[in-house]
Amino acid sequence: MPISVLGFYGAVAVWALLITRGLSTPKQWPLIAGFGLALLLFLNIRYVIDGAPAGIAFFISLYDFFDNLGLVTGEVPSAMTTCPENACSLWGDTYALHQSWGVAFFDRFVNAPVMRTNALYLHLVCNSIVFVLMHVQLLWSGKPGIKTAHAWLGRATLLFLTLGTAAALYLASEHDAVQSYGDVWAEWGFYSMSLCVYGAALMGWRSARRGDWQQHRIWMIRFVGAMYGAFWLFRIFLMVTGPLLREWETASLLLSIWTSAPAGLLIADVLRREWDARSTHYQRL
Ligand code: HEM
User: How far apart are CA 7 and CA 264, in angstroms?
Assistant: First the structure.
């Protein structure tokens, strides 16, 4: 049994508990955000330390438990397959079947061209930095005396986001040849995801340049939602739809690719409208 995978499940359960309790106590949000950031960094930094194949094997192992739930011996769903020597997973003999997108992901980065591996590192390092910076911006915005720091941090965030998104576009441009991802559907899905995340950030930046602080706040909250969608909702959707859609190859991955970022953006926008409505209500009292 891979202890690291079980430990990660435990940490996610604690995070879910904190989120449930924090819904009614906004004071806990910095703690919740900090805990989530630590989990994200734990997942992403291991790619740089252990190398892409090891990082991917850990990533696939997180899904193996759910994807194999309820399978009887000898049953091979259409969306699942094996990988040579079961090297793409940390579960050893426990699970020999994995989602075929996972096996394709592992294949793409074992003996990969240097450019592809570096693009993946650039993508996940830059986007992880963006994740940290955007939290700093959110938690400190509105505090007196930090206007200049906020502007400079904003520029740095946009720079890292540009690099991270450019690397993602490069990786996605190869996906027309990856049938288990959904070929051109995956490629264009990742383009649309980039447009959603980067477009929201650009709208926020544009409104800041115009001095329209109300629109700046609205678009930056949407951007943060899209980032949460692209990272966390993407992976949570996979966990749920993976076992449910295992008879339809590529369906689960394509759903995550096309819907996670817009879903995150929409949820953030709905929450923001609710906060605004509540604070207007209290101001009137
Ligand atoms: C702008 C939206 C995003 C797009 C278009 C995108 C696209 C991609 C692509 C194309 C891959 C590689 C798949 C392959 O080539 O085989 C990938 C992997 C990855 N991305 Fe993103 N991504 C986005 C947002 C994010 C964010 C916000 C993070 C958070 C830091 C992130 C972290 C990762 C990681 C860690 C991987 C490796 C797989 C994993 O362990 O999860 N991505 N992404």
Answer: 26
